[in-house]
Specification:
Elements (H helix, E strand, L loop, with lengths): L2 H9 L7 H17 L4 H9 L5 H6 L4 H15 L7 H15 L9 H11 L80 H11 L2 H19 L3 H20 L18 H8 L17 H12 L8 E4 H13 L1 H14 L13 E2 L10 E4 L4 E12 L5 E12 L5 H12 L3 H8 L5 E5 L2 E5 L4 E2 L21 H10 L2 E3 L4 H5 L13 H7 L5 E5 L5 H19 L5 E5 L2 H19 L5 H4 L6 H4 L23 E4 L13 E4 L7 H8 L8 E5 L21 E5 L1 E2 L4 H17 L11 E2 L9 E4 L4 H7 L14 E5 L2 H11 L5 E3 H4 L4 E7 L9 H13 L10 H13 L2 E9 L5 H6 L22 H13 L3 H10 L3 H18 L7 H21 L3 H17 L3 H10 L3 H10 L3 H10 L4 H18 L2 H11 L2
Parallel strand pairs: 1-5, 10-14, 10-15, 11-12, 11-13, 13-14, 16-17, 18-22, 19-20, 19-21, 21-22
Antiparallel strand pairs: 1-9, 2-3, 3-4, 4-5, 5-8, 6-7
Helix pairs in contact: 1-2, 2-5, 5-9, 6-7, 6-9, 7-8, 7-9, 12-20, 13-14, 19-20, 20-21, 25-30, 32-33, 33-34, 34-35, 35-36, 36-37, 37-38, 38-39, 39-40, 40-41
């Protein structure tokens, strides 16, 4: 049905006589709006002229069609080329009036009231020019911008839920310290004007008019107003009230002859208790078109938990401590507990800072002269000093961000390098004058009294978020020593910072520094708190997986406290990755709730084959059948293949990592696992789709409305990020349908001295060997955190044949999902399937404005993506070595973002040696990726010969598996591998390593099965504790005595045991000897 036909039902008195009938009518109306060909202006006009309350009910709907219609309104408004049609302003005014008149028990963000007060001033401005004519067709999607700068269009995001932070406790120190001035806050009433920042609507509007031209500012401001209101509309209580309001209006229309034009306010009693409040908000009459959550989960509980995880629990000032600082403290715990006790006491005294009490002992400038940002020290014990600075950008749970304290660590005063901290201050200052001002500005002092003492405290200031585009990358080069660049990148970008809390000192004595949930940025925080399904798009290293895990942990803890079961599932491509993510998630959760008994204490010492073997099945983690899953099994961490048995299963929240590695049809199947429309979370980056035949794009998942982006790169510095962004820009310009267009990513640290380096036309092998030689010893080698990336396996074998086994060599596909300190791209252009003409076409298009033929040079789509993947594997350095001159045109094109020259008579300026621990860690990573040759190489470098042999055995099995079934070498290869597995398993058994031993025996058994050696397979299965398989293969080998013995002494599947016993009775009877007959009788008798 069309919109007018559906709306007619609302105009007939008595036609809608129940809430169920209203639900059906609204469901039909929303569907009609979604499929209507009419333009948005016409649709809004029809709604505004219809029954009272219908506009509010439609615009507050949480149905997918409701989300889609709000999105169409914003797009239509943003595409207006002149003054917007007055219908948009009337719509905003009507929706705003409804929201500010909500009853006080329905919480809305104070930003709604501020926006309503601000934009109400527009009614006093002159009338708008003549509006645009209506369009007869449905709006077309906005065209993509190609390599153009500009402000990112903000999509409306979920409501910031009202929080009730508790007052911070008093420091338990010997000094008299004032209590925090924070007092418990009551939920703001939407009917009471809130003006925390003293905003004068007229002055605010006048300031905005000075920024934008007159013809544009009404569009921009109406858009902002609608976005704010639409954000509030995702709250279930708001939707329920609007629907009840409409039903009351329709009911009165059926009994009264006239009705006022304004929406009817539904009278409801003020709730007297939280229980009554919930009853009112969650009406028992639920809409059929509104998606139903599978659990009753209070959003405020989740928001409160996440707020606590992101800010200090000591006072107004959030305080975060670097993981490096925690490591320093743990070293004192291990070496001198008495000293640690003194440090702990002093640091607790330093928490005076968190309540805004700044005094000379805890707030002394480290440098006499400020170099952009002030760095401070606080006295601890002896010559130990705490180094910190006042930063800006901490999430607050509202639309603003807060100042906070960032503690870098504990340092001996005699070892503090003032030159380095000068570079830190100058580097931070590159974020621009606005950032510097927000870090330096202080609020008015507040005098607090405790006993007879009066103390002056300062509260952190709140400001709107800074756009990344406001960051400056210039102006501080003279103050930064080039030797400090990479260390700056490590401490300001790679380092994680943990919120200081009341249980901090107790926790760091039990858990490693990497076991803590760290502070996240405001964009990440908003994604974590997003109350509905979303797509999270971000380039490599922007924190997508972090958002997933922190959201999972927050929901899990919140629902556990409320006593409600919650089923969450995390899906990725690799079993070993799924295990590692599960282990990390459980570790973070355990640390967050400060559970007794650390996982590290329970784990077996040494390496675990189970954690590295992609094909290994864990015991006790999952039941044999998915139908036997219980709430205790969740959260689950599985691969896509493992989810196939979940058809029809009930999942509350589903998280899909690296979604671009799936097909669109796979995404649809995954979505079918979770029937909660607000429980879907997909994350990925289509710039990394280098798999053959993959053409995944997130824009094709139209079921999701909210598309959220992350644009800050926490892995690489600006020297690498700028080149990667340039490549993405080329993809977006020349192949716009192959990639999702995102806001250009930025880095936290500007390291212009370490741009990627090009080496083109370098055919001399000796030059390359000299380049990768150790600068001290002259030995040709690279370290554990360095890698050479080539095109394919053929190129890898050719390079290893030329230079020997001196470094880890990976193909582009093998390197995907991994990261290293340094990357050397070898013969990327030489081995490219694209011709020199193809590469030159981009240069001509960029420099000479020639037309680029997308179809003729289509090969460059995959080539540019491959180049992007190779570059973004690096954290610190990238070198591009090409023997041919095929890529010279690209070298010219990349000149502004790369360093062109390097003296070939000198080795690379990078550390070439690594510790045994570093080699072992890298070996584990390669092993879990199935790169057994590289794993064996790293284990040998680490001196782990047994593990190197294990990796080699896995590699030999991999080679045997790839042989065709009828290949003459297949069976001998499997037989040899089986014997190797048995030998290695026996060595592990002798070394008291039962878990690894059993897994190796299992591998041996499976190889024996491949060569149809049932006796050997049965024996290996038995040693692997796979008793059902052992009994089965003993029976296949005709060894019934051994099979029956296994059945009698071990747990065997009843069906298998029954079949073996049945066959054994006949075998024993046919033997006709006394002992066999006795066996048969024993099997017959119960």
């Amino acid at each position: 049905m069309d919109v007018e036909t559906v709306l007619a039902a609302f105009k007939v008195p008595g036609a809608i006589d129940s809430r169920a009938a209203l639900d059906d009518a609204l469901f039909s109306l929303l569907g009609a709006l979604d499929t209507a060909d009419a333009d948005v202006v016409s649709l809004l006009t029809s709604l505004m002229q219809s029954s009272d309350g219908i506009v509010e009910a439609v615009l507050t709907s949480r149905n997918n069609d409701g989300f889609a219609f709000r999105g169409r309104i914003l797009k239509a408004l943003q595409k207006s080329s002149s003054t917007p049609n007055p219908i948009f302003q009337r719509c905003a005014q009507r929706l705003g009036s409804f929201l500010v008149a909500l009853p006080p028990w329905i919480k809305v963000d104070r930003l709604v009231m501020e926006t309503y007060n601000t934009f109400s001033a527009t009614s006093e401005t002159p009338k708008s020019p003549k509006p645009e004519p209506n369009h007869s067709k449905k709006e077309k999607p906005a065209s993509k911008s190609h390599l153009k700068s500009g402000k990112r269009k903000q999509r409306f995001v979920p409501l910031h839920l009202a929080l009730e932070p508790s007052s911070p406790p008093e420091p338990d120190d010997v000094e008299e310290i004032p209590e925090s001035p924070v007092t418990p806050k009551q939920p703001p009433s939407p009917t009471t004007p809130l003006n925390p920042r003293s905003i004068n609507p007229s002055e605010h509007l006048r300031e905005c008019l000075e920024v934008w031209p007159v013809h544009y500012n009404l569009i921009a401001y109406t858009d902002k107003e609608l976005q704010t209101y639409f954000t509030a509309c995702v709250e279930e209580a708001v939707e329920e009230f609007a629907t009840n309001n409409l039903f009351a209006a329709l009911s009165q229309k059926a009994t009264l002859s006239s009705q006022p034009s304004s929406p009817v306010a539904l009278k409801q009693p003020t709730p007297s208790s939280p229980v009554a409040e919930r009853v009112l908000i969650e009406s028992p009459t639920r809409s059929k078109f509104r998606p139903q959550p599978h659990i009753t989960l209070e959003p405020n509980d989740i928001a409160r938990y996440l707020e606590d995880a992101a800010s200090s629990k000591f006072g107004d000032w959030p305080v975060v401590v670097s993981q490096r600082g925690i490591k320093h403290l743990r070293q004192y715990i291990a070496s001198d507990k008495e000293m640690f006790g003194q440090i702990e006491k002093k640091i607790k005294r330093v928490t005076q800072l968190s309540v805004g009490y700044f005094s000379p002992p805890n707030h002394t400038k480290l440098l006499e002269q400020d170099f952009g940002i002030s760095i401070y020290t606080a006295d601890l014990v002896g010559d130990l000093r705490l180094i910190y600075h006042i930063d800006f950008g901490a999430p607050t749970g509202t639309s603003d961000e807060s100042q906070f304290l960032r503690i870098f660590g504990v340092f001996a005063q005699s070892k503090i390098d003032a030159g380095f901290w000068k570079s830190v201050a100058a580097q931070l200052a590159r974020r621009g004058p606005e950032y510097i001002q927000r870090c330096a500005e202080r609020s008015a002092p507040v005098i607090l009294t405790k006993g007879k003492k009066r103390v002056e405290t300062i509260r952190p200031k709140l400001f709107p978020p800074l756009d990344n585009s406001q960051w400056s990358q210039k102006g501080a080069d003279a103050e930064i020593d080039e030797a400090h660049f990479l260390e700056l990148h490590r401490i300001l970008a790679l380092e994680k910072f943990v919120p200081l809390s009341q249980t901090f000192f107790d926790a760091i004595q039990k858990y490693e520094e990497t076991s803590f949930m760290f502070a996240v940025s405001s964009p990440e925080y908003k994604i974590i708190r997003h109350p509905s399904s979303c797509l999270v798009l971000g380039r490599s290293g922007t924190g997508k997986t972090t958002c997933m895990l922190f959201r999972m942990i927050g929901l899990d803890i919140a629902t556990e406290k409320s006593g409600q079961p919650l089923r969450q599932m995390f899906v990725t491509q690799s079993r070993t990755l799924a295990r590692r993510v599960r282990s990390y998630c459980m570790q973070l959760r355990q640390t967050e709730v400060n559970e007794v008994g650390a996982a590290a204490a329970e784990a077996m010492p040494g390496l675990s084959l189970l954690e590295m073997d992609e094909s290994a099945e864990e015991e006790g983690v999952l039941p044999e059948r998915f139908s036997e899953l219980e709430d205790a099994h969740f959260p689950l961490f599985l691969t896509y293949d493992q989810t196939q048995g979940f058809k029809g299963r009930h999942i509350d929240f589903l998280y899909v990592d690296e979604a671009q590695d799936n097909l669109i049809v796979d995404a649809a199947l995954l979505r079918s696992l979770c029937h909660n429309p607000h429980g879907l979370f997909f994350a990925g980056d289509t710039a990394q789709t280098i798999s053959v035949g993959s053409a995944f794009r997130f824009s094709e998942l139209k079921a999701f409305l909210y598309r959220l982006e992350l644009s800050t790169n926490y892995r690489s510095h600006s020297g690498i990020v700028n080149v990667a962004a340039f490549i993405v820009g080329l993809l977006d310009q020349y192949f716009p349908h192959s990639i999702d267009s995102l806001t250009p990513e930025v880095s936290l640290v500007d390291v212009s001295a370490h741009k990627p380096v090009f080496f083109s036309g370098r055919e001399d092998r000796s030059d390359f060997l000299r380049l990768i030689s150790d600068s001290t010893s002259g030995k040709v080698e690279l370290g554990a955190h360095q890698v050479i990336i080539v095109r394919d396996e053929t190129a890898a074998k050719r390079l290893q044949g030329d230079i020997g086994r001196v470094a880890v060599v990976l193909t582009l596909y093998e390197s995907k999902g991994m990261e290293f300190d340094d990357v050397l791209l070898y013969d990327f252009f030489t081995d490219s399937t694209a011709t020199a003409t193809d590469w030159r076409a981009i240069l001509h298009s960029q420099h000479e404005d020639r037309v680029f033929d997308e179809r003729k040079h289509s090969i460059l789509q995959s080539e540019l993506k491959s180049f992007y993947v190779g570059l973004t594997r690096a954290r610190e350095r990238v070198w591009i070595w090409d023997r041919s001159r095929k890529g010279q045109d690209m070298e010219v094109l990349f000149t502004p973002t790369t360093n062109k020259f390097h003296q070939l008579n000198m080795p690379l300026d990078a550390p070439m040696s690594s510790t045994s621990t570093e080699w072992t860690k890298q070996a584990q990573q390669y092993f879990s990726k199935g790169l057994f040759g590289e794993a064996a190489f790293c284990f040998k470098k680490a001196g782990q010969d047994w593990w190197a042999s294990v990796a080699s055995a896995y590699g030999d099995r991999q080679v045997a598996n790839r042989l065709p079934d009828k290949h003459p070498r297949r069976l001998p290869a499997f037989s040899e591998v089986a014997q190797n597995f048995v030998r290695l398993a026996q060595l592990a058994e002798n070394s008291n390593d039962p878990k690894n031993s059993r897994l190796l025996f299992l591998n041996a058994a499976e190889c024996f099965v491949a060569v149809v050696d049932h006796p050997s397979a049965a024996e290996a299965f038995f040693k692997a504790h796979k008793f059902t398989d052992a009994a089965y293969h003993y029976r296949r080998a005709g060894l019934f005595d051994e099979a029956i013995d296994v059945i009698k002494t071990q747990t065997v599947d009843p069906k298998v045991a029954s079949a073996i016993k049945y066959a054994a009775k006949f075998v024993y009877t046919r033997r006709r000897d006394v002992q066999s007959l006795q066996y048969a009788i024993q099997l017959i008798l119960p």
